[in-house]
Structures
1.
Amino acid sequence: MTQRLNYASQSPEFFKKMSELSMSLKDSVIEQKVRDLVNIRASQINGCGFCLDMHVKEAKIHGESELRLYHVSIWRESNLFIPRERAALAWTEAVTELPEGGIPDELYERVRGQLSEKEISDLTFSIMTINAWNRASIAFKAVPGSADKLYGLEKAGLS
């Protein structure tokens, strides 16, 4: 696969703003481990190879276990995720897929049982951001692994 164009160099001002948003999310009340799971799950749903590759490697660098990484796509059946992570994954799926009729109140209340309003808000911004990155990477056919050196992802040992 060949990348269609380098959107970072074609629209540097917008790429910079998106990057700033992504970096600012590190200061959110949502912990890194949950943000990693969210980035992986949204990228799986959207079929974004570039982002999935990147975020699996980041999660590994952040100390995530390989077994949990393998289980993200089957999180409902897995016993490896705590209720807070399950709530974040359910919210990620709903916000990413946006079901007809919107997100059900029942799901919101279930998530609200695990996360505060501030946490749900911060989590939603994280989900919105990864979905935007997924769309750009898919549209321009970003090549998985092509930014490993730039982002220090070779440290994951998953090449």
2.
Amino acid sequence: MALEDGFVEYLVKKKTSTKEIMIRVLCNVFIVCVIIGVPVFIAPGLAPVSLFVGVVLWLIYHNFILPLTDIEYEYSYCDKEISVDKIMGKEKRKNLATYQLEKMELLAPSNSYRLADYKNLKTVSYWSEDDSDDHVPYALIYDNKEKVLLDLNGEFVKIVQNNAPRKVYTD
């Protein structure tokens, strides 16, 4: 396989928001209160029932709520396509989008002056939301219809640039 036809994957964890952390904490506190609080403070005879309800609540939390608050994005490049997958709770994978290099207009850092003509496009975000000063996502302008925010590393950008040199900028 030639360098131009390369394959690369990159995995990035989405920053957990304060809201998501609070949801996790409140769910865990509620489950512990049901399991321990009901038999100790309300009705000692309901210990088996509260244990059963607590286990059911924990299963609901573990299978539905936790995956929605623990998200990673996997970007892969193969055969002139950029694919974006969402991994929820390190277990469930969902393909979000696939972008053809032929339809890509531009790939540049989101603070680049080259994006000035594309301000009114629909924006889709698949980046980690890391808002530190030195961290800037890349913007992919696709088919002149949408602007896609991606959290790419240098190796990934380089391989895309090798395949579409006039469409990729690193300024």
